[in-house]
Inverse folding.
């Protein structure tokens, strides 16, 4: 285990990171480190820079921590965690995020060329509403448009309701991974969990109706017994293909 005052480099953090399922309940835990790593996580790449996600922090001092851990199917990674971070998607705020992006470009002090401002306006005020808007039958219509245009030129095909939802979850997952690597770099461990009662968690945390839970991450100082065996990965030759 790395000392807390010894921050790791990127490749060291990647190599050292494991999903740790039992955390130390006795030692100190710096919750400010969680905030630091979350601040870094929001710098992660995301689709159209909309950042359609949120991190909900539930520290050990919260009265919601134990009930939330129980809703994570009583996994030790949740019950022993010093803090739980709930990663949720927020597709429902796409309008305000699109507007914020356009206004940032419009009011930038870098004297953006008129052409770039016009392109940004077309993207955030025209294309994004078409992609994220919800109307009866609109998902099918978008797929038909993509198919028709794709008959003549390269075209993005993943425009249906399911594909848009997946895209939002991908952005949330990218940010979650940055957070977990950051936690390892500052000497702490994490465990991402998908085993939870999403309906009851949303009710417990009073999450927005339009949100979805991407994952719940247990945080703490991992104990040796919290690593369930040596790491296994299939050979890189099966995962990395050069054409």
């Amino acid at each position: 285990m790395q000392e807390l005052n010894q921050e790791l480099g990127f490749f060291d953090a990647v190599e050292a990171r494991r999903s740790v399922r039992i955390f130390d309940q006795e030692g100190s835990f710096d919750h400010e480190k969680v905030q630091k790593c979350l601040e870094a996580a929001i710098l992660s790449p995301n689709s159209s820079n909309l950042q359609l996600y949120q991190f909900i922090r539930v520290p050990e001092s919260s009265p919601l921590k134990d009930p939330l851990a129980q809703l994570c199917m009583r996994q030790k990674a949740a019950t022993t965690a010093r803090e739980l971070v709930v990663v949720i998607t927020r597709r429902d705020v796409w309008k305000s995020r699109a507007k914020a992006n356009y206004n940032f470009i419009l009011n930038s002090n870098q004297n953006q060329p008129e052409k770039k401002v016009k392109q940004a306006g077309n993207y955030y005020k025209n294309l994004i509403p078409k992609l994220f808007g919800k109307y009866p039958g609109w998902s099918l219509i978008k797929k038909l448009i993509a198919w028709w245009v794709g008959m003549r030129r390269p075209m993005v095909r993943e425009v249906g309701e399911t594909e848009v939802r997946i895209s939002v979850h991908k952005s949330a997952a990218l940010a979650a991974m940055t957070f977990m690597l950051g936690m390892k770099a500052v000497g702490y461990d994490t465990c991402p969990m998908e085993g939870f009662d999403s309906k009851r968690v949303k009710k417990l945390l009073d999450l927005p109706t339009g949100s979805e839970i991407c994952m719940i991450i247990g945080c703490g100082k991992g104990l040796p017994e919290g690593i369930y065996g040596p790491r296994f990965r299939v050979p890189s030759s099966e995962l990395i293909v050069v054409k």
